[in-house]
Design a protein that fits this description.
three-stranded antiparallel β-sheet; 231 residues; 3 domains; alpha+beta; PH-domain like
Length: 231
């Protein structure tokens, strides 16, 4: 039996291949292994509870519309990202000796220091921390999932370098994922569109039409408006 395969774009970020052989249809995706979320093109699109800034204030971080966002506002695109360093540090105080830090392996903070450029092109740094504590160690799971999403978003892997972990650099500038502006629509019709929508330029290039316009000003004005000419 003759084989045939037709590839069709299912969405902007996925491709479905429809292959028929004896009535069998195969999907060219990863099915149940796919972790893409509804608000993330390649990341899970999840929002994570964390601590932000030097003061470690409660916040939310996540990925939405190709941006890394904090508290569901603003955010940076991939081409604004420069580097990230992950530090594992113990900041938990001992219950018996509160002036001493004391941590088991699963109680170390996950501190992500992200370097980026703002809209003015100035270098900035942000601190996002996940802080497990004695009986509340769920922050470890959130930190690992955030790390995975971050690596997917930056299209690179966090590697050990010295006492901390960071994405190595420098690297070529990544392609921007910013929404591309659409092509401005032409506001006038042919034939005046060939003259930059200028009625006067069109008439200068077409003397016979200019003569008709001078003889029929009312009809000519209706025609100018219909064509969307600017003057």
């Amino acid at each position: 039996m003759r084989k045939f395969c037709q590839a069709v774009a299912a969405t902007a970020s996925s491709l479905v291949a429809v292959c028929a052989l004896g009535g069998v249809i195969a999907r060219a995706d990863l099915g149940g292994a796919d972790i893409t979320g509804p608000s993330g093109d390649t990341t899970t699109g999840r929002i994570y509870e964390a601590r932000c800034g030097a003061e470690k204030v409660k916040c939310t971080v996540g990925f939405k519309d190709e941006k890394l966002i904090v508290n569901n506002e603003g955010g940076i695109y991939r081409d604004q990202f420069k580097n990230v360093i992950l530090n594992r540090e113990c900041t938990q105080r001992s219950l018996l000796l509160p002036w001493v830090t004391s941590c088991f392996a699963n109680q170390y903070d996950w501190a992500f220091t992200i370097t980026y450029t703002n809209e003015e092109g100035k270098a900035r740094s942000a601190l996002i921390t996940f802080m497990p504590r004695y009986l509340a160690t769920g922050a470890n799971d959130r930190a690992r999932e955030f790390e995975r999403d971050l690596q997917i978003w930056v299209e690179d892997v966090l590697r050990p370098i010295g006492p901390s972990i960071q994405i190595e650099g420098p690297k070529p500038a990544p392609p921007s994922r910013r929404p591309q502006p659409g092509t401005p629509a032409t506001l006038c019709k042919q034939p005046v569109a060939d003259f930059g929508c200028s009625w006067s330029k069109y008439l200068e290039a077409n003397p016979s039409v200019k003569t008709w316009v001078e003889a029929n000003p009312v009809a000519a004005e209706r025609e100018r408006l219909r064509l969307g000419a600017s003057d």
